[in-house]
Amino acid sequence: MYCPESAVILLSTTVLENVLQPFYFRAGTMSKLPKFEIELPAAPKSTKLSLSERDIAMATIYGQLYVLFLRHHSRTSNSTGAEVVLYHLPREGACKKMHILKLNRTGKFALNVVDNLVVVHHQDTETSVIFDIKLRGEFDGTVTFHHPVLPARSIQPYQIPIAGPAAVTSQSPVPCKLYSSSWIVFQPDIIISASQVLSESDRAALPVIATVFDKLNHEYKKYLDAEQSYTMAAEAGQSRSNPLLKRPVRTQAVLDQSDVYTHVLSAFVEKKEMPHKFVIAVLMEYIRSLNQFQIAVQHYLHELVIKTLVQHNLFYMLHQFLQYHVLSDSKPLACLLLSLESFYPPAHQLSLDMLKRLSTANDEIVEVLLSKHQVLAALRFIRGIGGHDNISARKFLDAAKQTEDNMLFYTIFRFFEQRNQRLRGSPNFTPGEHCEEHVAFFKQVFGDQALMRPTTF
Question: 0.70 cut: is pTM over it?
Answer without folding.
Answer: no
